[in-house]
Structure formats: C-alpha cells, structure tokens
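In this supplementary section we document a worked example of the pipeline. Step one takes a protein sequence of length 272 as its only input; no multiple sequence alignment statistics are reported here. Step two produces a three-dimensional model, which step three serialises into structure tokens for compact storage. The input and output of this example are shown verbatim.
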Amino acid sequence: MNAIILVVILAIVEGITEFLPVSSTGHMILVNKIIGGEYLSPTFINSFLIIIQLGAILSVVVYFWKDISPFVRTKKEFVLRFRLWLKIIVGVLPAMVIGLLLDDIIDKYFMDNTLIIAITLIVYGVIFIGIEVVYKLKKIKPKVKRFAGLKYRTAFLIGFFQCLAMIPGTSRSGATIIGALLLGLSRPLAAEFSFYLAIPTMFGATALKLLKNGLAFTEMEWSYLALGSAIAFVVAYIVIKWFMDFIKKRSFASFGLYRIILGIVVIILLLY
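The serialised model returned by step three reads:
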C-alpha cells in the first residue's frame, strides 16, 4: 500500500462516517492505526484527519443550500432564515469556547488513545439503543418538529452535547442528535440541526488546526489534502441523502448496535 491509497481510504471513511452517529474521527484514527504504517508523517496525519472534514462539510452546504441560503426573495423568508442562523450560532458557542480551552489537552491525551475510542463507541451505542427503547415503550412524541419551534435556549443546550464529541469515538452528530432527542426534537429535525451545527463547528476546528500546525505542507501533502477533501465531499453528499431518508422510517438503534460491536472488536484487538 502507498500513501495515495491510504489517503483515498481515509477520505472514503470520512465521507461515510462524518454525518452518521458512529464517529468519523474515531474511525479514521482506527483505520490509520491498522493500515497507516509510515506512509504519512504523524504531524500531517493529525492535520489531514481534521482538514478533509471540510470536504464533507461543504457537502452539507450544497445539499441544504435551499434551506440555509441567505439569498431569499421576501422579507418574511429573510427573517426566518436569519433566525435559523442565529440559532445555529447560539448552538455553536459552547464548542467554540470549550474547544479553544481544551484543544491541546484533547490532542495530547485522547486523539491517539485507541482504548478511549473503543469505550466511547460502546457507551454511546448503549445510550442510543436505550433512548430508542424508552421512546418506544413510553410512546414519547417529539415536542419540536420545525425550526420555528426550536428555542434559542434549546439550541444552546444542544451545543453542550456537541462538546462531548471532542473525545474521539463519541461522534459529533451522535452527541448532538442524542441531545436534541432528549430535548424534544423529532428525529429528522435533530439530524438536520446536527448537520447545520457542523458547518461553523468544523470550519472553526479546521481553522484552529491550521493556526496551530501552520500551512507548511509539502506540494505532495497539499495534493493529498485536495484529493482527500474532494473524495470526502462526494461520498458525504451521497450519505446525507441516504441518511435523511433513513431516519424518516427507521430508528437510531442499528447505529447503536454497530457502535457496540465495533467497540468490542477494537478492545479484543487491543488485548491480542
């Protein structure tokens, strides 16, 4: 295997897992550990795993453009769109503050810890299944089905759930969706708001990583970043379309089961 094949594999994994509640960063770290070898430097890989998420985030912008674009025809539409973006900004504030404060600590103690990834995969898998079981047994109905009904306070609280995903293996989309469900949002609305929160959050995470590590990439490394981002964009767009259809008919329990199985497999590999 050479560096280009590794880049392609990591980009495909990023595109598939970024918006599914299974942890994209956790998957990419695991894939890199299993097949990474010495093809790419540790410093570059650290930046690569964050920067190619931009490709996936751009797929959100393209897919939901008609719903988030500020270019609308009427004053009423502009007010609604302005309120939506205000709620997105409010939801991102916790991650901005906590992320800046804890970024170095997370990089040092968690980013390369395979055991923590395995544990968080299992824990949040159990939580997902637990939530779905409770919802089914108690026949809980969502209180909020449209963005117009989403309060700023609720958006802010969902933002705190997003902070849980700073630990690799948690899943940013998984944490925000869990938070949104617990706070009364419907599944489709929870998933959509999770996608919207990803736009400023991941742009900010990429900017922070670039500020810390600089832009001192080789010409070849820049080409790897471009290739990885392009592949992540295409794959993520396909996954978003599939996921939005999936959650209208199915629960998140299957993702919870997948997380538990993967976490157990990782622990077994660590032991042997």
